[in-house]
Amino acid sequence: MKPTAYLLNTARGDIIDTSALVKALEEKWIAGAGLDVVEGEPIPRGHLLLRFENVILTPHVAWYSEEAALELQETCAWDVVRVLRGERPLSMVNAEVLQRPNCRLPELRDHGLEDKRGG
After folding, report:
1. What is the pLDDT averaged over residues 26-34?
2. Which residues does the annotation mark as catalytic?
3. Domain that includes residue 100, residue range
4. Is residue 1 domain-resident?
5. Helix, strand or coil for residue 7?
6. Same structural domain, 52 and 13
7. Residues 84-108, buried b or exposed e (16+ Cβ, 10 A)?
8. Distance between CA atoms of 35 and 58, rounded to whole angstroms?
9. Spatial separation of the C-alpha atoms in residues 29 and 103, rounded to whole Å
10. Do residues 11 and 35 make contact, with C-beta atoms less than 8 angstroms apart?
11. How far apart are CA 12 and CA 36, in angstroms?
């Protein structure tokens, strides 16, 4: 990474090698970091990452805003409506369950595994 780069992680804390990140910050190999998640949450008092002024830590709620909360609720509600109509939900992440013999939504099973989002 360039010395002007910032490392951002909003996924999972354990995908970042914390020791390597601390070294990169100490050696100024990167400009800083923004972390919504860390290894072993909650972050303990005295953690090495807390001493850096160029590190921003959030309590795994960086996604939150009034608009985001409303969009989350609306997306969920519309997916429920889609399922009640016999349609596949747009936000389905485990479509493989539709292929199982015990699937209670046979009309959705016939729609296949292709991603229906965006069209």
Report:
1. 97
2. 12, 41, 60
3. 66-109
4. no
5. strand
6. yes
7. eeeebbeebeebeebeeeeeeeeeb
8. 6
9. 51
10. no
11. 9
